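Protocol step 4 of 5: obtain the predicted structure for the target chain.
Materials: sequence only (see below). No template structures provided, no constraints applied. The aim of this step is simply to have a reference model before the mutagenesis design in step 5. Sequence pasted as it appears in the construct record:
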Amino acid sequence: MSLTIIEKRVLDLLEDFGEDIEEIVKELESEGDAEIDSIYFIELIPFLESEFNVTINPVNIHDNSKRSFKSFCNLVEHLIN
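Step 4 output (structure tokens):
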């Protein structure tokens, strides 16, 4: 499975927060997406905003991503482009 730069970075950050990224990758491979507690997405905002020079509104996460790893990464990619 090929991951985007954003997906790889989000996985790295999730690992820093203590998440089991091997399980996440397995879920991505088998289901095409992974369910992540959305609080982690909120906690990742400052790191991603700083690194990619974007502004991520937490409301967008709730409205668009909820608990979807893929949707969250797509949201970040969309904000960058």
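Step 4 remarks: DSSP finds five helices and no strands in the chain. The radius of gyration is 12 Å.
Proceed to step 5.
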